[in-house]
From TrEMBL:
Residues 20-101 form the TtsA-like Glycoside hydrolase family domain. It comes from Tardibacter chloracetimidivorans. Residues 1-23 form the signal peptide. InterPro entries: Lysozyme-like_dom_sf (IPR023346), Peptidoglycan-bd_3 (IPR018537), TtsA-like_GH18_dom (IPR008565). The keyword Glycoprotein does not apply. It comes from the Bacteria. CDD domains: N-acetylmuramidase_GH108 (cd13926). Gene3D superfamilies: Chitosanase, subunit A, domain 1. This is Uncharacterized protein. Keywords: Signal.
Length: 199
């Protein structure tokens, strides 16, 4: 884990984000309606195996799951700089990445920033390439400068949640099995990152 890169408040924020994700994801599940199959601490068997894990999924430790999260869902998609900038926006993005894979939330963050730039008066549109890099981070910095840290955080968290809600409804509308998870998704994933914590 690149927590060595993070110090002080950022390292504490990352630990807190991982704890919140573990709390939402829970322990071992193997629901036949879930295309992810066997899952423990939110890590699917496929992802665990691709990450080098060879044991039974029931035995996957939180420490191993945290290492997988750090590598695949935080470092690789470029979310670490968000942890350094804003704990709540980072949690919303990382949490969505664990639930949907990092690609969609990366797209959503870029789309959200474009929606919030007041027709490019505040900062230029970001190319929605679904890769979080310097241009995306610069746009987020510009939003924070223009709107203030707290309001920028609130706006991004709310719109990212709206993107997730839309994707849940799309999944439930196109796959009857997905409807089985709609109550749980709505109850535990939407609003689980509380924008009122933005400050």
């Amino acid at each position: 884990m690149s927590k060595a890169r993070l110090v002080g408040a950022a390292a504490t924020a990352l630990t807190s984000i991982l704890g919140a994700i573990f709390a939402v994801e829970g322990g071992y599940v193997n629901n036949p309606l879930d295309p992810g199959g066997e899952t423990h601490h939110g890590v699917t068997k496929k992802v665990a195996v691709e990450s080098g894990y060879t044991g039974p999924m029931r035995d996957l430790t939180k420490e191993k799951a945290a290492a997988i999260y750090a590598s695949r869902y935080i470092e690789k998609p470029g979310f670490l700089p968000l942890v350094e900038r804003d704990r709540w926006v980072a949690e919303e993005t990382i949490d969505s990445g664990v639930n949907f894979g990092p690609y969609r939330p990366s797209c959503w963050l870029q789309q959200t920033l474009n929606h919030l730039n007041d027709r490019q008066r505040d900062y230029p549109d970001v190319v929605v390439d679904c890769k979080i890099g310097p241009a995306t981070l610069a746009a987020f910095d510009a939003l924070r400068k223009r709107r203030g840290d707290a309001l920028a955080c609130e706006l991004v968290v709310k719109l990212m949640d709206a993107k997730a809600a839309g994707e849940y409804m799309r999944l439930a509308g196109t796959n009857a099995n997905s409807e089985a998870f709609m109550v749980g998704w709505t109850r535990t994933r939407l609003g689980n990152v509380d924008f009122r914590q933005c400050r």
